[in-house]
Design goal:
Blueprint lengths: L25 E4 L1 H4 L2 E4 L5 E4 L4 H4 L6 E4 L9 E11 L2 E8 L2 H4 L3 E8 L5 E6 L4 E5 L6 E5 L3 E6 L2 E22 L10 E28 L4 E8 L2 E3 L2 E38 L2 E19 L3 E15 L2 E16 L7 E13 L11 E14 L18 E8 L5 E7 L8 E7 L5 E7 L5 E8 L5 E7 L7 E7 L7
Parallel strand pairs: 1-4
Antiparallel strand pairs: 2-3, 3-6, 4-5, 5-6, 7-12, 8-14, 9-10, 10-12, 11-12, 12-13, 13-16, 14-16, 15-16, 16-17, 16-18, 18-19, 19-20, 20-21, 22-23, 23-24, 24-25, 26-27, 27-28
Length: 486
């Protein structure tokens, strides 16, 4: 019977879901047991212990074994026992893949960690001139390129990215595992899951290109990768790693240079509950000192940002990437002629193979924040706008600039006048401020379709009327310069 004798569930008196319950069938090997490991196969299927130990002797087929970091198991392990055999003083344990659902009866696997330079145990530089150091202004990290990162160099094409990014990454992971108390023979399942990364960052980014008329989309570069010290949560060992990705894409003719600095607090992640995945996103972001220098037409995008991934033992786990980017579009036929957009893009991947047999892995990429941070002056800039009317329907059908620089409008109104619709005449100054308004008509509908200023400084209106005549009639109105009916 699977997990015999277990009782209770979500509604059990005094039950705290976060409290982790490890069944008797899960054996956590202590350092004295893992110290007796003579050999471990590369795929972790076969464990050879050179001498006997009480905990090793207690293993049975179907047990789960958990081990921490040791000389033979640098990433720890979580495995299910398939068979046990003896060869003299040696004990050979054959195993197969297992999930946290197999090893934990109920409870929460949780950690939250702010990563600093002290947490980094090794770095791998893939681009010369790139250094990862402590933030001189805080406790975070600073990635700085002492020379341009060449993203593309082919023939006459050359695209480079330069700058720095200072960031304080925080990663949070939570997995809730429980069983259904009404189905005692059913294995525990992953009830909910959360992976979230929050980054406080400052960055300065500059993209430069000199190339013939061509499109470019070089493969993204990972200038640097860093391995972070393991994190333990109960019997589970997590191995976070950090990388910074830089890239660019677009279409450029002649020369271009764009740059800006960025400051922000960014959060990206995924949550799972009740069979539904939801993205987690939050951005308080600001771009400063935008600059663009270009000739002819182009569109280009440059991005730089940290990516955090987490292995659980030796198995790939969740991943969160946050990229701040600059996007530049220029076209002499458009208005505005060029536009510089800043934004933040996130890619989150929840690899759940180690967490669950049933819940499939999931990935989501989404725009977190996007804003135009600089642009060329528009050719036709709106100087002002005005509205006229009351609580009901009012419309203007004709407008003309008058000799004094103001405007005269004609239309129809229900808000003012004697009948339903009345012909409506409005006079404004050069800034569109109302000087006066007049209505014309009777008890029924009347309207004005057009207006012109006359040589004597007055106004002539043409429209229609139901108030005067036997049926719908043409309606001609003449006023003086103040809208008084003549």
């Amino acid at each position: 019977m699977y997990r015999q004798g277990r009782e209770g569930g979500h509604n059990s008196p005094g039950y705290t879901f976060e409290k982790m319950v490890i069944p008797d069938t899960t054996k956590t090997l202590d350092s004295s047991s893992t110290g007796k490991l003579k050999e471990v196969s590369a795929n972790l299927e076969k464990f050879t212990f050179e001498s006997r130990a009480p905990l090793i002797d207690s293993l049975s087929k179907g047990d789960m074994i958990i081990g921490g970091i040791s000389e033979k198991t640098p990433y720890g392990f979580l495995r299910k026992v398939k068979s046990i055999s003896k060869e003299g003083s040696k004990t050979i344990v054959t195993t197969e893949f297992a999930t946290l659902e197999d090893a934990i009866e109920r409870g929460t696997v949780y950690f939250k960690k702010t990563i600093t330079k002290a947490d980094i145990i090794s770095t791998t530089k893939k681009v010369q001139g790139v250094e990862l150091t402590s933030d001189p202004k805080g406790s975070g990290l600073e990635l700085k390129a002492s020379k341009d990162i060449v993203l593309s160099k082919k023939g006459y094409k050359k695209v480079t990215l330069s700058g720095s990014i200072t960031f304080t990454p925080e990663i949070e992971l939570k997995a809730d595992i429980d069983f259904d108390p009404l189905k005692k023979l059913q294995r525990p399942i992953l009830k909910s899951f959360l992976i979230k990364t929050t980054i406080n960052e400052r960055s300065e980014l500059k993209l430069t290109s000199e190339l013939e008329i061509a499109s470019f989309k070089p493969k993204p570069l990972t200038p640097l990768e860093a391995q972070i010290a393991p994190i333990t949560a109960g019997p589970v060992v997590f191995f976070p790693s950090l990388s910074v990705v830089a890239g660019a894409e677009g279409k450029i003719s002649a020369k271009m240079e764009m740059s800006a600095s960025q400051e922000g607090n960014l959060t990206a992640g995924l949550s799972y509950a009740g069979g539904i995945w939801n993205p987690i996103k939050g951005a308080r972001n600001q771009f400063n000192k935008p600059s663009c220098k270009t000739s002819v037409g182009l569109e280009a995008k440059a991005y730089l940002g940290p990516q955090l991934s987490v292995r659980v033992y030796s198995v790939a786990g969740p991943f969160v990437g946050i990229e701040g980017y600059l996007k530049f579009d220029a076209d002499s036929q458009e208005d505005p002629r060029w536009m510089l957009t800043g934004g933040v893009h996130a890619l989150v991947r929840a690899e759940l193979k180690i967490f669950s047999w049933l819940v499939a892995s999931y990935r989501k990429d989404f725009e977190m924040w996007k804003k135009v941070i600089a642009q060329a002056p528009k050719k036709n800039v709106q100087k002002w706008q005005k509205t006229f009317g009351g609580a009901d329907t009012d419309r203007a059908y004709s407008v003309q600039q008058t000799k004094d620089g103001g405007y005269i409008l004609a239309g129809e109104t229900i808000s003012y006048g004697a009948g339903e619709y009345d012909a409506w005449l409005i006079k404004t100054d050069a800034s569109g401020n109302l000087k006066w308004q007049k209505t014309f008509g009777g008890a029924n509908d009347d309207w004005a379709n057009s207006v012109q200023q006359t040589k004597d400084g007055g106004y002539i209106l043409a429209g229609g009327t139901f108030s005067f005549g036997n049926a719908s009639q043409a309606y001609l109105i003449k006023t003086d310069g103040n809208g008084k009916l003549l």
